[in-house]
Amino acid sequence: MAGAFEAIGPEPVVTVGAAAFRDAMCRLGAAVHVVTTAGPGGKTGFTATAVCSVSDAPPTLLVCLNRRSQGGPILRENKVFCVNTLGADCEAIADVFAGRTGVFNAQRFATGSWFALKTGAPVLAESVVAFDCRVVEIRAVASHNVIFGAVVDIRLGPAGPALVYHDRAYKRV
Ligand SMILES: Cc1cc2nc3c(=O)[nH]c(=O)nc-3n(C[C@H](O)[C@H](O)[C@H](O)COP(=O)(O)O)c2cc1C
Question: Which residue's alpha carbon is at the smallest distance from atom 4 of ligand 1?
């Protein structure tokens, strides 16, 4: 189904359909991350490929999270998150944090080994790299919240092949 966007100009932007967009996006390979948060709002995490570097001055990245996600209000209240980039052997963790095993919120952390850096957001010991972030801005765009984080700490984990999502499947790179 095609969608209409409120445009900056006088005419509404008529987009391509969602299915065509998803079919096109599956041709892009993307690193797989588990984004975690912990604090007064509770502890949770979710699998995400919509993670992007924004700037190195100061170091900033963004994560796109569907507003229907249970983790959204928790992350908003905690004001911190950690982007854990998964290695090739972390497919099972990706499935848990994508909700594919029917496990939710804090129970998801029964899989993997976890510790904390500066913000208290859970850091996955097995992740190839972890970006510990404080939320600096949240913007609602279409169905998602775009969450901007200032990177306050980094942990380089064991080096090795990365986990990539491409053509609707996990791949080792
Ligand atoms: C490979 C992969 C990538 C995903 N990327 C995103 C993403 O970037 N943003 C998002 O909101 N959901 C993404 N999801 C879906 C969420 O991981 C899933 O809906 C999760 O269960 C959300 O957490 P919740 O159960 O706490 O709502 C992805 C799922 C998979 C399998």
Answer: 48
Structure tokens at 2: 């095609």
Question: Do the Cβ atoms of 56 and 5 come closer than 8 Å?
Answer: no
Q: How do residues 108-165 score in pLDDT, each as one tens digit?
A: 999 999 999 999 999 999 999 999 999 999 999 999 999 999 999 999 999 899 999 9
The CATH classification of domain 30-172, taken from the options 3.30.420.10, 2.30.110.10, 3.50.50.60, 3.20.20.70 = 2.30.110.10
pTM of model > 0.85? yes
Q: Whose CA is nearest to atom 7 of ligand 1?
A: 48
Residues with CB under 6 A from ligand 1: 32, 44, 46-50, 64-66, 69-71, 98-99, 104, 165
What is the SS3 assignment for 49? coil
Summarised one tens digit per residue, pLDDT across range 20-75 is: 999 999 999 999 999 999 999 999 999 999 999 999 999 999 999 999 999 999 99
164's CB contacts (< 8 A; 6+ apart) are: 29, 30, 31, 32, 170, 171, 172, 173
**Which of 37, 46, 76 maximizes ligand 1 atoms within 8 Å of its Cβ, making it the mutation to test the pocket?**
46
